[in-house]
Design a protein that fits this description.
Helix content is 34%, strand content 32%. It is α+β, with helices and mostly antiparallel strands and 200 residues long. It has one domain. Strands 1, 3, 4, 5, 8 and 9 form a six-stranded mixed β-sheet that branches. A four-stranded mixed β-sheet has the order 7-6-2-10. Helix 4 runs antiparallel to helix 5. The N and C termini lie far apart (72 Å).
Length: 200
Amino acid sequence: MKALLTFSLVLGILAIEALTQSPEAQGNSPREVVEQLWSMATTGELLTPEGWSRASRLFADQGPAPSNKPIRVVSNYYGVDRPLIQGNTAKLIVWYEDVGQIDSALRFLPAPPPTSYKTPYPYSLVLTPRRSTMFGPDGKTVLKQMVGPQLEWQISGAQPPPWTTVNTAIRYVLEKRGETTDPVVKKNADMTLTTLVHYR
């Protein structure tokens, strides 16, 4: 009888530990999810349909890549705060500098003057069943949607328009400049490159 009571007590403790376990321990933590997104932006993955498709699984609302949207450019340096986790939700802030935008004609539009040294970008994350959407080569056609039994942290909402950091934006403009024969676009690219180097 005593052994049975001891066994029941142990099971009860294990059950309580399972219920109170931090959601952060399941899969990637909220901070790791956001850091993965920023790493993909830094390497320019968010500027291609294929990279967009890979990044879409980090978001709760998964959709196709937008077309003809300006590319947002942010500073090369940024910092990811520790998350505040409450149950199945988490919040954290990424600190960075907003630089500007590059349109489809490779024109650069600078961001408004900052009101502080760093700009806060808040992220909200939710713990949801693991799911992913497979897009076709164009980054828009949905081929397959899957939902798994495991839970994972995903960023709330939909993925924002394409964005990257200054160094990668410079590489992007150089590449696009080499692909065009339009003298106006080439001139825009030259002016954009001259501006962007000051933000490195």
